[in-house]
Write a structure and sequence with these properties.
2 copies of one chain form a homodimer. The first copy, chain A, is of the alpha/beta class. The first copy, chain A, has a 7-stranded parallel sheet, sandwiched between helices. Chain A has a 3-stranded antiparallel sheet with strand order 1-3-2. In chain A, strand 4, helix 5 and strand 5 form a beta-alpha-beta unit. Chain A contains 9 helices and 15 strands. At the A-B interface, helix 1, helix 6, strand 6 and strand 7 of A face helix 6, strand 6 and strand 7 of B. The structure holds a DNA duplex. Chains A, B: Keywords: DNA-binding, Repressor, Transcription, Transcription regulation. Chains A, B: This is DeoR/GlpR family DNA-binding transcription regulator.
DNA sequence: TGGCTGTTTGCATGTTTATGCACGATTTAT
DNA sequence: ATAAATCGTGCATAAACATGCAAACAGCCA
């Protein structure tokens, strides 16, 4: 009777193609807004909502009021648990991971403690991780959800990651929010120390390329001193220690202006 | 009786040729619209739809409402692709490793076949291995006896190694005796091909940084063609194929001046 | 040449898919 | 608590679709 609706099917973009692009944008930005998409593709919000509903049905996105977000990360079935990480080290890693915010860029050094941290980083926080350790890179690739940058150069087998001039130069050309230099020894009076000259130089470059530095130290590293200094304590903003760490030691670091984080004693 | 239809068979373009052109346009643009193709080839949309249906049946495109898109490249999370090296792949890897001499410097690309090669390289040959794949680097570190150099840069999760400008630049500053670019497709007439633009550029840089190039190809790679050319066959000195490789195919490559190495059929 | 077969094409038919709108329910913000 | 925004569902419409059919053409054999 009256003017019938104008069910224009489309003009230019194929429906399926539109869904793919929505998915691509979602994966890039971490979220999409229905109204924006409707304007961008020149279709009604109804169609966009239908698309998002379909994608959500396939588990490719999570439907929320106003748009959609990335699907909730798989809660890590814990199937692939590495026996190497002791329970204590995992507690330490969890506390360290809690210092990370979504969207940050992290610089992660080689080392078993840092590998433990990589296993507990949130996969849905759109983190960018720069590392010199192939083991850690592989770990994060397997978990999916991380953008991983590799530091090139010659690998020191004893360290398990690249060090040396090329690695240092490459780190200098990067910028990170947070860095985790593996600690060889840390002392409230003398600062952060490494066993090897090249290693110490690399860690120093990491710290200088980051806004903030987190040192994660098992008990045996606290108060110890090695041969090559990495940095003064003034460059270290956070120290993560085990639950069993000595109270006096903790306050010694705290009095130097560092935030001291004590790991839990039992799994939460 | 009435006006009979005018089933003009065609004017100038053969049906098969039309399908090839549609496929070319699809691979160039990533999508094709049925209506546009009908106008371009001056045939009815019905014929175009028939073409698209045939191409889709061959898995060369994905049929969608309004046209067609590139087939959903299922990158097979590579976690499972790496799961275990089949016996056939191991035979290939052994033959490839036999081309390596003591003291050489190798450039090894990412990929499951190359990972298999890394597991069978002689550990006592004082080899220097340069790789862009953290998985392969880790493999060699665990085996001990290798000097490993890492190519830095952003890691493509689908590839499992670094690609991009930074990786290419770093490869250009190295020099190797032998390189193993992972093959996506190799054709006696058209050369070596890759699926991804960045990937192809990186492989090309690898080849240019090496004295000799070895391509290790499973049967499904032989005679196939992908979208981005890596190099002419004149840059490839050695081709390693499975025992089951077609005889005619083997001689086709041999007549192009390549040394064709056929893997054993049973473990030695 | 003439008849036969197979392919390709456009057209007609009925079906499926995608869309925008209307309406009421639900959620979020104020 | 009230208003605004967003959501889900049903509906009508048109485009895109699959299918069946007959015409035109090429090749083949007699």
């Amino acid at each position: 009777m009256v003017k019938p609706p104008i069910p224009v099917p489309d003009s230019g973009v194929l429906p399926q193609e539109r869904q793919q692009r929505i998915l691509a944008k979602l994966r890039h930005d971490g979220r999409v807004v229905a109204a924006e998409l409707a304007a961008a593709f020149e279709v009604s919000e109804d169609s966009i909502r239908r698309d998002l509903r379909e994608l959500a049905a396939q588990g490719l996105c999570k439907r929320v009021y106003g748009g959609a977000l990335l699907p909730a990360a798989t809660p890590t079935p814990l199937k692939q648990r590495r026996g190497e990480h002791s329970a204590r080290k995992l507690m330490l890693a969890r506390k360290a991971a809690s210092l990370v915010s979504a969207g940050q860029t992290l610089l992660i050094d080689a080392g078993s403690t840092n590998a433990a941290i990589a296993t507990v980083l949130p996969a849905d926080a759109r983190l960018v991780v720069i590392t010199n350790a192939p083991h850690i890179a592989q770990l994060l690739l397997d978990r999916e959800g991380f953008e991983v940058l590799l530091i090139g150069g010659r690998i020191d087998a004893a360290i398990g990651g690249t060090v040396g001039a090329q690695a240092v130069e490459q780190v200098r050309r990067t910028r990170a929010d947070l860095c985790f230099p593996g600690a060889c020894a840390i002392d409230a009076a003398h600062g952060l120390w490494g066993f090897d000259s090249e290693e110490a130089l690399f860690k120093r470059a990491m710290i200088e390329a980051s806004d903030e530095t987190v040192v994660v130290a098992t008990d045996d590293k606290l108060g110890a001193v090695a041969t090559h200094q990495v940095a003064e304590l003034s460059r270290v903003q956070h120290l993560v220690v085990e639950h069993s760490a000595d109270r006096a030691t903790r306050s010694a670091f705290a009095s130097r202006g560092m935030a001291v984080h004590r790991a839990d004693s039992v799994p939460s």
